[in-house]
Design a protein that fits this description.
Elements: H1 5-12, E1 31-34, E2 40-45, E3 49-56, E4 67-70, H2 72-78, H3 83-91, H4 93-100, H5 102-109, H6 123-142
Antiparallel strand pairs: 1-4, 2-3
The structure holds zinc ion.
Amino acid sequence: MKLTKAQRATLREMFGGLCAYCGQPLGQVWHADHVENVERKLVYVSGKGVVATGEFHRPERDTLENMMPACPPCNIDKHIDTLEGWRKKLSNSCAVLQRNQPTYRHALRYGLVQETGVAVVFHFERVRAAERAEVKAASDEAKPFNVEA
Ligand SMILES: [Zn+2]
């Protein structure tokens, strides 16, 4: 769907102007990512290669509710992956670097970088968890004191 200027502005501010995935500020150029892939129809065009037709195999997913504001590097890296598939790929980044990048292995050996093993948590997940905690805290505050069952 072609977003209106107002829809695009609202989507951009969904997380205060930050990428829904990495949490970095969105620049002038940002993408409206389909969280669940719309599966773009592709055709081969002689002299151009494989190009998108502009049609989707899953048009029912082309909704504003299925969109997140994303920085281009995140949207391009996520590509057609599911969130869990992409999370798994991201979680494997250090192993890929160790296997393929001698410079990374040197940096590790000399202590210039340190792998943390942290779980990949997307920015929108942190925001929603914080919102749930705020709702719970507000709910707990609303409870009367000294209530014993
Ligand atoms: Zn990002």
